[in-house]
């Protein structure tokens, strides 16, 4: 703690007063971070998800067991486009969920990634898919993303990439 305090004082002497938060629980950019004794950290974004649900104005009381149904990638060319107001809400809520999925809820990444491809041409079918995703997010809002490391000797990561999976051959 003394070393941290001295570094904070040095930074403040050069850049001005900073907001300092100490302890095991922090809130940063919509993420509730809780540092555990075992060196892991739990990330929860419950408040941010609640904001997305509120903005959508959708009834999310009926739970969904998964973020998306088996029809996630199906696009009905005959589906009616969303009106201007709903389209704007769709775009905004999808963007919020993209932020959430990248920081604290990787379980919703697939559904969010697909909905992002529909942001500029959203239809009633896409709106229903967003509704299901929000019902799932509401049902699982207390989930924490737990990360940690056994060792800093070797760092491994995994990725899942797709190539030309959309009808227009985009990735």
Can you characterise this structure?
- It is elongated, with a radius of gyration of 20 Å.
- The model has no long low-confidence stretch (mean pLDDT 91).
- The chain is an alpha+beta fold.
- It has five helices and four strands.
- Helices cover 41% and strands 9% of the residues.
- It has a four-stranded antiparallel β-sheet.
- The chain has helices at 2-15, 46-56, 84-103, 109-117, 124-139; strands spanning 25-28, 31-35, 41-44, 145-147.
- Helix 2 packs antiparallel against helix 3 (84-103).
As residue ranges, the low-confidence spans are none
Biggest beta sheet summary = 4 strands, antiparallel
**Helices and strands, in N-to-C order?**
HEEEHHHHE
Strand order of the largest sheet: 1-2-3-4
Alpha-beta content class: alpha+beta
What number is the mean pLDDT? 91
Our measurement of the CA-to-CA distance between the termini, rounded to an integer number of angstroms, reads: 47 Å
Radius of gyration: 20 Å
Q: Counting H and I runs of at least 4 residues, what is the number of helices? A: 5
Report the strand count.
4
Shape annotation = elongated
Strand content: 5-15%
Summarize the amount of helix as a percent range: 40-55%
